[in-house]
Amino acid sequence: MNTKKKNNKAWFLVLPVVLVVAFTAIIPLMTVANYSVQDILSPDNRIFVGLEFFRQIATDPAIVAAFQRNLVFSTQILAIEIPLGIMIAKLMPRRGWKAAAALVIVAIPLIIPWNVVGTTWRVFARPDVGLLGVTMNQFRPFDIGNTPADAWFTMVLMDVWHWTPLVALLVYAGLRAIPDAYYQAASIDGASAVSVFRFVELPKLRRVLMIALLLRFMDSFMIYAEPYILTGGGPGTATEVMSILLAVIAVIQFDLGKAAAFSLIYFLIIQIFSFIFFTILTLDERPGATKRAEKKALAAQASAGKADAAPKTGVTNE
């Protein structure tokens, strides 16, 4: 019989973490959830409306359009930033003072505050004095204040400039972690640069790229300060992403119940997309994945054997 007395004092060490999480996450989230089911007319006058605000959010054309703009924006910047970040990391020096200098230069955009980035690009894209605006005007009329395509192009370009260095630094760290023995073996085999990247570096960068994809997707879906300062969501609603529309509903229209319901749906969308991304990218690492891969390989070998045997016997699977 075990007569040793358990010491539960260790639970007190967890208490600070519980308090921090409660004040920073749980209580604010529950407050928003409480607002989402009430129509607040004044501090002392509120009406319970149930899920009415959620129904309005799901059928609001402006919110659906903002959601679609967010999807397009995230897809575009991921399609540009991931390959561009890999290319920059491949070009960066591996050793010596040049490697340190390259790291500092590449990291510069990351240490600039978001509102400063938006202000800088706002001036940079001005058609009268901005370098980008004046240069583009040499070829075609360029005005982010009146042309939706120009505003969208500038917003994407700004995000690529600001956040591609993050992808490059993550990939660079992943490349530095690959042992030299892999490159030496590939050199002995006479592998080309493309083969080294395809069969040596890319498999080793899988987890790094997964982190980069998740971080950039979540951040691009929550982007607010830079596009708000750059275009304010305009012209019209051309660059009005979900975060900007949420701020308009909560601050300008002061519709707290609808804004709270919108916030919860916004939060769930990001969580669901991130979960789907993570599930797909780690599918091969889950228990049972190796066995499935082995079964597929055996099935492929069996099919190849039948195909080889068919001409000899004159029998086809058809």
From TrEMBL:
Q: Which residues cross the membrane?
A: 12-33, 71-92, 99-117, 151-175, 237-254, 260-283
What is the recorded membrane topology of this protein? Multi-pass membrane protein
Q: Could you say which protein family the record assigns here? A: Belongs to the binding-protein-dependent transport system permease family.
All copies of the ABC transmembrane type-1 domain together span 67-277
Q: Which InterPro entries does the protein's record reference? A: MetI-like, MetI-like_sf, Sugar_ABC_transporter
Protein name (record): CUT1 ABC transporter permease
Its GO CC terms are:
plasma membrane
Instruction: Kindly state a single biological-process term from the GO annotations of this entry.
Output: transmembrane transport
